[in-house]
Amino acid sequence: MKKDYVILFIVVSIAVALTLSNVLSPRNVQEISDLRNSKVLKEKFFFLYESDPEFRNSVDRLRELLFNTLEDYNRTEAWILFNSILRKLGLPEIELRDFRYGRGGLTPSPEPPLKLKPCCEDCVDLNKVVKAIVIPRRDLEGGNGLETLYVCAYKGDFYGYPVSGKIILEVTLVFSDEDSPSRDVEYDVWRLIAWGRIEDIETFFIVLDEETGEVEKVSFRGLVIKMTDWPNERRISPIGSGGAAFVSAAHELTVFQDVEEPLIIYVNTWNHALSLKDNNVFLDKYSYSIESVEIRVGRRIDAENDYSMLKYSSQNVQSLP
Ligand SMILES: [Ca+2]
Ligand SMILES: [Ca+2]
Fold first, then answer.
1. How many CA atoms lie within 13 A of 15 on its CB side?
2. Ligand 2 center from residue 201 Cα (angstroms)
3. Predicted TM-score (pTM) of this structure
């Protein structure tokens, strides 16, 4: 009997020692700090998704909870799955009270996807409309710079709304990442699950007079995108910054008229909310000239389909810009 206790004591001691050495080893601390680099995190996430069936099942089941809007969202199950994903990535788990992630703007939509007309390719020279996109330098240096710009020009028809005498541009910006001031690594893991990407994507609209080419308005208004594998629409909130500065997040519907041309678009907040006004006059900035940006013809869903593991089949708007 006494011998059994000794063996049990030894086994438990080894297990505790191994767990502690695993949690506290310099290697582990180093790994967690490496994952603060979102490129490393993305690679590890994609690698585990391909190579570890348990990891993949957790991600897929969590996506099922999120995207199957015909069933109620089970927050506790979502939290357990999220923690198993964090654990596999080598990150600390979180308490249920800190798990604030949910479905966001997902709504059931059984209707077939809207048939989208092609973008008008030679309707507008973007160089003449937008002069620059300006971002706080610390955001660029934090790895969150502008990667690609997508533009789609609409003439005669805008998602079924007749348009005459105007050209509407749908402009989508892709940033390499976005950094939440609190719990950024965990926030990035959540975005990899719920958005299938580490990149941050924002869309806004510019209305031009077809004859003169002058800008009539710039509209930071939202849209909806339809998922390919789920009967869902995903609401994309407006991305105007309002008066918010870099330390805040914002999703304001803002429309600018009587604007100065060519346009200068300011990234005002850490979540890349936009405006024609600079809300961070005291911050050092970096200015992207339009010639220096990679421009692709396409819409929001083209940007999503290029950068996300999740796929989208169509998109729509709820009004004219
Ligand atoms: Ca980030
Ligand atoms: Ca954003």
1. 6
2. 6
3. 0.90
